[in-house]
Automatic annotation (TrEMBL):
Name of this chain's protein: Isopentenyl-diphosphate Delta-isomerase
NCBIfam families found in the cross-reference section: IPP_isom_1, PRK03759.1
One Gene Ontology term, aspect cellular component: cytoplasm
Pfam families named in the record: NUDIX (PF00293)
Region (Disordered): 186-209
Protein source organism: Brevibacterium celere
One term of GO molecular function: isopentenyl-diphosphate delta-isomerase activity
EC number, as in UniProt: 5.3.3.2
Protein purpose: Catalyzes the 1,3-allylic rearrangement of the homoallylic substrate isopentenyl (IPP) to its highly electrophilic allylic isomer, dimethylallyl diphosphate (DMAPP).
Reaction(s) this enzyme catalyzes, per UniProt: isopentenyl diphosphate = dimethylallyl diphosphate
Record-listed Mg(2+) binding positions: 90
Length: 209
């Protein structure tokens, strides 16, 4: 699946209900509307986390270190399909074992230039398949780092990473520990939460659930 000029983001209200779409290329401004997104944390076979440095050409938080990749699902696309699409586009890899780990994450942040991120943004983990070959327009550097070291960086110097990563990592530690010991479940399953974004195979149309 290719990124195209017609790419869009799904606009939502405070309850996560779809209210429209907007062009992905122009949605992020100083008045960014609330929209649907995801964050993905890619792990290797030993539990190391892939962290990436955002391209200097990015509209928001250029050059900042962050989680493996983020993205926006399209209308009619499941989160898993969107994750597959972005993994190939940004990192040149396939991923497997996609799990929803923080189903209700939401944030709003403003970067130094005034550009706003304003997202309902469930967080996923995934396992790597293949060799990382990042697209230069998206990622300018990357590292495999033990998750514990990343958690310590976030604790001591949260300003050195993206604001969404700084907010997500403290809540990820226990969930990723369960995954590494093969005890993890999809935190977005209906058994895990009664709130919005409550199913693992969700489609980006209508309500989040």
């Amino acid at each position: 699946m290719r990124m195209t000029a017609e790419d869009h983001v799904i606009l939502v209200d405070d309850d996560g209900e779809t209210v429209g779409t907007a062009p992905r290329a122009t949605v992020h401004t100083t008045r960014t509307p609330l929209h649907l997104a995801f964050s993905c944390y890619v792990l290797d076979d030993t539990g190391n986390l892939l962290v990436t440095r955002r391209s200097l050409a990015k509209t928001a938080w250029p050059g900042v270190w962050t989680n493996s990749f983020c993205g926006h699902p399209r209308i009619g696309e499941t989160f898993e399909e969107a994750i597959d699409r972005y993994a190939e586009h940004e990192l040149g890899v396939a991923v497997s074992e996609i799990r929803c780990v923080l189903p209700e994450f939401r944030y709003r942040a403003v970067d130094a230039s005034g550009v706003v991120e304003n997202e309902i943004c469930p967080v996923y983990s995934a396992n790597l398949r293949g060799t990382v070959r990042p697209r230069a327009a998206e990622v300018i550097d990357w590292r495999w780092v033990p998750f514990g070291e990343i958690a310590e960086v976030v604790r001591l110097a949260p300003w050195t990473v993206s604001p969404w990563m700084a907010a997500q990592v403290p809540d990820l530690a226990a969930v990723l520990a369960r995954i590494r010991t093969s005890l993890g479940t999809d935190e977005c399953s209906e058994e895990s939460t009664d709130g919005p974004a409550s199913t693992g195979e969700r489609t980006a149309i209508g309500a989040l659930s």
